[in-house]
Amino acid sequence: MRVIQQHKDNPKIYEVAWMWLPMFIAQNSALLSNLDHALNARFPPPVEVTEEKLDEIHDFVIEWVCQQIKIPGLEKYLQAMREVEGGN
Length: 88
What we know:
Elements: E1 4-6, E2 14-16, H1 23-26, H2 29-42, H3 51-68, H4 74-79
Antiparallel strand pairs: 1-2
Helix pairs in contact: 2-3
């Protein structure tokens, strides 16, 4: 699983998997809004959504969040989502 996924109704659009993020991130509307702006600037839709592109966006989201919230171990925690099977 990744912190981002393809939109279920439009496979050319990706979205952040908010429900899989820690609550202090998922409920921070200002952070999520800023992340949305950063994602649209870096990966303007529509994006050709491939496994490689999803991996690239996943890594970008984690790097960006960890720059905003400096908590030891947060990057490892978010990267561990890749070990969860059955997601995107």
